[in-house]
Specification:
Blueprint: H1 2-6, H2 19-23, H3 32-53, H4 58-75, H5 83-93, H6 98-122, H7 136-202, H8 208-236, H9 240-253, E1 257-261, H10 263-266, H11 271-292, E2 296-304, E3 307-314, H12 327-338, E4 342-348, E5 351-359
Parallel strand pairs: 1-2
Antiparallel strand pairs: 2-3, 3-5, 4-5
Transmembrane segments: 12-29, 35-54, 66-88, 100-119, 131-153
GO cellular component, one term: membrane
Protein name: histidine kinase
Length: 365
């Protein structure tokens, strides 16, 4: 229960501070009509929360919210409530393909125009009154809200892309170091190995102590050569920044918004950890593209006790996907088990939540 409360988007409820301006017109209750409109305000609040929290049914709740607020505008000439969907729905649809916002905007302005025409027929002189200045805000709200939300999401995407590119540039320096290690130390250790093997053959007739010393040199040089090769291999593995850059491009091409949190700290995780998580993320994104029909994907990188943790959250219908029959998910789970971690998948009305963990390197037995 506490987790659900923490996950709520509380920013969307700031607009409730303006709700009294709508309710005050019907207080104190003088007749049945006032009671009806107050009851409709309560119904509106419920629908507003459902739009915000239950993404699965937005195809029903968004039109219903628009109809309720439109009823206030048309029958009661209350234009305060219709401002709520103007901002809330515009912010939501900024994450979706533009055609959804266009359909909403057409419906919104159609309701507004019809309500204005009825207002004009009942109160012919209303346009001359100073109160009509308050009509400007409902008219411009959807445009301002959508433009503002769209710019925020695009800026967030741009900032994340820039951070990934910076990480890849730093990685380029690591690869240069890897080449230097291979070309210098690797060659030197190879020569030491060859010379010690030759010396051992030449000195077979000499005292055994010399042979023993040479064998130690050979063994040490081989170990160092193996160590250098391991370092080079680790440096050539794909980092999380590279994985996310590629997957963000794939999601963008499918009109799916992608955001991440904690990505910078994850870039400092050990290479082996990044490699396992990276492969699992690629598979998870692939499943989202094939099955989820999502509009938004979020990745969260964090620490939880002795574990590295990655969460992949989407707003699709992954609950219809059978994870037990998926070789990809079995592979993801196997990779996490290699890192002494685990893979868990949760489904609810808001989408799918994948939780992956690996034991932190300094916590290995």
């Amino acid at each position: 229960m506490l987790g659900k409360i923490k996950s709520m988007d509380w920013f969307s409820y700031i607009w409730f501070i303006y709700l009294p301006y709508s309710a005050i017109e019907y207080l104190p209750i003088k007749n049945i009509k006032d009671g009806f409109w107050l009851l409709m305000i309560v119904f509106f609040i419920i629908i507003y929360i459902l739009v915000n929290e239950v993404t699965k049914y937005r195809i029903v709740t968004i039109p219903l919210e628009l109809l309720i607020t439109g009823a206030f505008a048309f029958f009661s000439f209350n234009f305060y409530l219709i401002i709520f969907p103007a901002w809330q729905v515009s912010f939501i649809l900024a994450r979706y393909p533009r055609k959804y916002y266009q359909f909403f905007a057409i419906s919104y302005y159609l309701i507004l125009v019809i309500s204005f025409l009825r207002l004009q027929s009942v109160y012919p002189n209303v346009w001359r009154q100073e109160a009509m200045m308050g009509m400007i805000f409902p008219v411009v709200s959807p445009i301002i809200a959508y433009a503002f939300a769209f710019s925020i999401y695009k800026q967030r995407q741009l900032n994340q892309t820039n951070r990934r590119l910076e990480a890849i540039i730093r990685r380029g320096e690591r690869e240069r170091i890897a080449r230097d290690l291979h070309d210098t130390l690797g060659q030197s250790f190879s020569m030491i190995t060859i010379k010690t093997e030759l010396a051992k053959k030449l000195l077979l007739k000499n005292p055994a102590k010399v042979v023993g010393e040479l064998e130690d040199i050979e063994k040490t040089s081989r170990q160092n050569l193996k160590l250098v090769r391991n370092i080079v291999n680790d440096l050539h593995k794909q980092s999380l920044s590279e994985v996310l850059l590629n997957q963000a491009k794939n999601l963008s091409e499918a009109n799916i918004l992608f955001f991440s949190k904690g990505e910078e700290q994850a870039g400092e995780w050990p290479t082996t950890i990044q490699d396992r998580f990276g492969a699992a993320i690629v598979e998870a994104v692939s499943n989202i593209l094939r099955h989820a029909k999502a509009h938004e994907v979020q990745l969260i990188f964090s620490y939880e006790g002795d574990f590295y943790q990655v969460e992949i959250i989407d707003d699709g219908n992954g609950g219809n996907f059978d994870e037990n029959s998926s070789n990809g998910i079995k592979g993801m789970r196997a990779r996490m088990l290699e890192g002494k971690g685990n893979l868990q998948i949760y489904h609810n009305k808001r989408g799918t939540h994948v939780l992956m963990t690996q034991l932190r390197v300094n916590s290995y037995d």
